[in-house]
Design a protein that fits this description.
Shape: globular
Strand content: 15-25%
CATH class of the largest domain: Alpha Beta
Number of strands: 10
Number of domains: 2
Distance between the termini: 81 Å
Helix content: 40-55%
Low-confidence stretches: 1-28
Radius of gyration: 24 Å
Mean pLDDT: 89
CATH architecture of the largest domain: 3-Layer(aba) Sandwich
Number of helices: 11
Order of helices and strands: HEHEHEHEHEHEHEHEEHHEH
């Protein structure tokens, strides 16, 4: 056996250690799976991909967006809840996340305890729209029309228990008009029916129907948030239109299993805060008709907890069920 002595041995050993460390650091990091419960091509999918691209750039991670629809988006949440809590499987979700625990029985996870907010991306208003042929221009005129034409008192909603449904139910209560809900599995079929007048009224996400509003195939009467839309500043709010306190917004953001280490959650959350300072990212979000929500992990967690309470109270007040 050849023996190396003195400085030569120490130099060789140090070289081997450095080489081992460099090889280890060169190993690719495990891909991050960002899972959402909507179909591809919609608002949720578009915003999830924007976030994934930002994490790719800022964290150097390969972020794969996966669409796993089913069970009113709770299938995606269940996948994340059952995944190893290492931060490599995250949930991208929207407002329906805070409605599901009040509507669905036997969820395989605890909405409040099993998840923590990572970072919210954007919020969007919903829009009260009618068929262009309907002879109304304001929410008050619509109420009068529906009372005079009860056969026209149907309103489209994208699934029972959605924020669109909650918006329609609150409008029905505040307007004191009897309206029959017509549920759809998505925006496309609903938009087509409203445009032709088959279903004269609907509430839908501004991102989903912006092009139809611009084209004149849908007539907007009001938006559901207290602030007007930057994309359509001429559309009044429902609160401005005689419905005091009306304020319902959609939100979109990332969540992690609550057992994911806090340092990992903070890393993702800090990257979310950084991207919200980027003019290019802000322009992309605004082009969709959405508004960026400030903050990272802490602000996301606070927002989601507040929305859980608000949504639960509204569902009970409006007596919304899936039956």
């Amino acid at each position: 056996m050849i023996k190396l002595q003195g400085n030569l041995a120490r130099i060789l050993f140090g070289t081997l250690v450095c080489l081992h460390a460099s090889l280890g650091s060169a190993q690719p990091a495990q891909a991050v799976h960002l899972i959402h419960g909507q179909g591809t091509g919609g608002t949720t999918d578009a915003l999830a991909r924007l976030l994934a691209n930002e994490w790719d750039k800022r964290l150097g991670r390969n972020v794969i967006v996966e669409s796993r629809p089913g069970a009113a988006t709770s299938l995606a949440a269940a996948i994340v809840a059952k995944a190893p809590p290492d931060g490599n499987t995250l949930l991208f979700t929207a407002s329906g996340f805070t409605a599901n625990p009040f509507l669905l029985k036997d969820l395989p996870f605890d909405t409040e305890k099993d998840f923590t907010g990572v970072g919210l991306v954007a919020t969007t208003p919903y829009v009260l729209v009618v068929a262009p042929s309907l002879p109304v221009s304001t929410p008050k005129e619509l109420v009068q029309y529906l009372k005079q034409h009860p056969d026209k008192s149907t309103v489209g909603v994208t699934s029972i228990g959605s924020a669109q449904h909650i918006s329609a139910a609150l409008f029905r209560k505040m307007a004191a008009v009897d309206m029959v809900f017509v549920p759809y599995k998505g925006s496309a079929a609903q938009i087509a029916d409203v445009a032709t007048g088959r279903v004269p009224v609907a509430f839908d996400n501004i991102v989903a129907i912006a092009s139809q509003i611009k084209a004149g195939t849908l007539k907007p009467l009001a938006i559901t948030t207290r602030q007007r839309s930057e994309m359509f500043p001429d559309i009044p709010t429902l609160e401005e239109s005689g419905f005091p306190g009306f304020d319902i917004a959609g939100w979109f953001g990332a969540l992690a299993h609550s057992a994911v280490p806090a340092s990992v959650v903070e890393t993702y959350g800090n990257a979310v805060m950084q991207m919200k300072q980027d003019p290019e990212f802000l322009a992309k979000v605004r082009a969709l008709g959405a508004t960026v929500i400030p903050g990272g992990h802490a602000q996301a967690q606070e927002y989601i907890q507040a929305d859980l309470k608000k949504t639960g109270d509204l569902i009970k007040e409006l007596n919304i069920t899936l039956e």
